[in-house]
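look at this fold:
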Amino acid sequence: MGNCALLTLVLAGLLLWISNTRADSNDDANDRKLLCTCENTKGTCQNGTCTGDYCFYTWVHGEEERGCFSKKHYREQCSGFFKGFFVSCCEENECNALMTPPPNINGEPTTVSPPEPLHPEMWISVSSLLLLTTISVLGFVLFLRFRHTPCRLKDPEDHDTTLIKIPTGEDPSYGDIFKEFCTSGSGTGLPYLVQRTMARQISLVECVGKGRYGEVWRGTWMGESVAVKIFSSRDEQSWFRETEIYNTVQLRHDNILGFIASDMTSKNSSTQLWLVTHFHELGSLYDFLQYSSLDPESCLRMCLSVACGLVHLHTEIVSSQEKPAIAHRDLKSRNILVKRNGQCCIADLGLAVIHTQAHDSLDVGNNPRVGTKRYMAPEVLDETIRVDVFESYKQTDIWALGLVFWEISRRTIVNGIVEDYRPPFFDLVPSDPSFEEMKKVVCVDQHRPSLHNRLNSHPILSALVKIMKECWYKNPTARLTALRVKKTLSKLDLDSDFSLSKVKQDI
């Protein structure tokens, strides 16, 4: 046992020296910038090189890109590959220069040539190396055996460089990539390099919308439709804000627009700001209501889905993967999309405000753009809102939520009657009202949207009328919360399902 103890001490000293050496080298590496090979990366290459904290190499269907990026963009699982898709990062000078994708990246079987016979001198070297390795392993096992200390858990900050598996069959969809890269089904989004790689492989097909923010295009990526929001140069702060929120906050929810990627790309010598999301062919709620009418049950489920999305935004989640509370600040029918199943999802977080209770910090961003005047709450119009209190922003969302419900209810058929689509306060202000015009109507004259008598003849619509009125109180603190709206509508939905099933049984 004396020899074992001596061997253990020697190995322990050796391991300590190695760990200290690695720690010192890591500290030095953290303090310096890497020189990386740079190819096909527009706008950042200078004479074929760039400097950053990490070097990277990507390969997508034969198109290669090499470059660098900073620590603030480092995401989990920086290395991985699918069929036709490969991304890898490294931390040595010009370590990406000779990187290539795996030989079977397109799904071909790998072929390995038979090994050449070893010379006698090589047999001696290999045997010596195997013997030394065996002794080292045995010594290390003894060291662990007598150390009596638990194994160190993996540091969550350690870089995960495990290659993701290649799925069999067809090329992966972005849904497949989400499953591989996003942890626990509700992570913060795709890794930065994956976002860049995906964005640069998208083909724009048709423009499906224009606004003051820029344009929305339907694009395709590996055969699937995606929505590409291209921001105008004057609205770049909204792009920065949405990118920041989507990349740092858990927003995976059925009633929040699904984020895929964000990227800056060059076109015709100008920079474009792209935000890539799930594509919903029915368009915005505003567009949908122009040509579609609803029955009361569909109206209820549509309103409930919007309320569910707003509850998810407003709610702070305290867990291992935290989510701060978020107020939207520009909720309106144009910023809500309609899904095939008749539910809605909330989009456009360019004006969002973030709050965390732990630090009681309020992050309002630095976007000079204000919300849409037609949907502004009284306290915003008369400038009495407490801008340093997060609850104030949530209360303005509730005001706007009531107006969205009003828009949906107008297009709901009751007793064979349905009204044409109109925006809120259409009968009181012009098509593009000024701040002062809205202030006079809402704050001075205290008008509220008119509600048709037919709504009171149906239990679902009459309950919705009551909710709307409680969203439009002049006093912000008297308004309902998003959670209260959701619970009321959920109970109404359950009651209507029960009544419907009872009618069917009677029949």
User: Anything to note?
Assistant: The domain at 174-278 is CATH 3.30.200.20 (Phosphorylase Kinase; domain 1). DSSP finds twelve helices and 16 strands in the chain. The radius of gyration is 29 Å.
